[in-house]
Backbone:
């Protein structure tokens, strides 16, 4: 006797295509054969797929929750600012931050020699440029300042400062 074949239902695979499942029935055995060559998903892969779908489905809820938290934070901040504004001393508004102390110039000179820029790669030149600007800025804002001298500032390093950094040095 020949096995009878019938299409029972169409399953939707993770890739979105419908694939019919055929069932062959013979007198002694019943077996299910899938028409596609891809192996079925393992339990672990099915769990991961389910978690991913749940994560995507709850995106709007997460977004709304984050937005609500941000609103609450802004309201708390606004309330504390309003509270601080209402608290005044008998003489008038609350005292402001004291002015910064005058910087002290130390008798130290730091010399940075940039003569080796022809031996540096582009990444090293970029790093050197950021180190120079950071050192200048930190020294300028420090309470105890040193004399800062940059020697042999030329070549590709100067070209970088004049073009890429738009003369912001």
Residues:
């Amino acid at each position: 006797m020949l096995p009878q074949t019938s299409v029972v239902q169409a399953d939707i695979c993770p890739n979105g295509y419908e694939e019919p499942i055929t069932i062959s029935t013979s007198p002694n055995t019943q077996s299910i054969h899938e028409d596609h060559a891809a192996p079925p998903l393992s339990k672990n892969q099915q769990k991961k797929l389910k978690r991913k779908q749940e994560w995507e489905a709850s995106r709007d809820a997460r977004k709304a929750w984050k937005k609500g938290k941000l609103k609450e934070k802004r309201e708390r901040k606004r309330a504390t600012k309003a509270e601080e504004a209402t608290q005044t001393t008998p003489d008038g508004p609350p005292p402001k931050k004291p002015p910064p102390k005058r910087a002290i110039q130390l008798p130290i000179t730091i010399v940075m020699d940039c003569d080796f820029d022809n031996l540096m790669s582009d990444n090293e030149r970029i790093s050197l440029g950021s180190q120079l600007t950071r050192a200048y800025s930190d020294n300028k804002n420090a309470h105890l300042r040193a004399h800062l001298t940059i020697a042999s500032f030329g070549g590709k390093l100067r070209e970088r400062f004049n073009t890429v950094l738009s003369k912001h040095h």
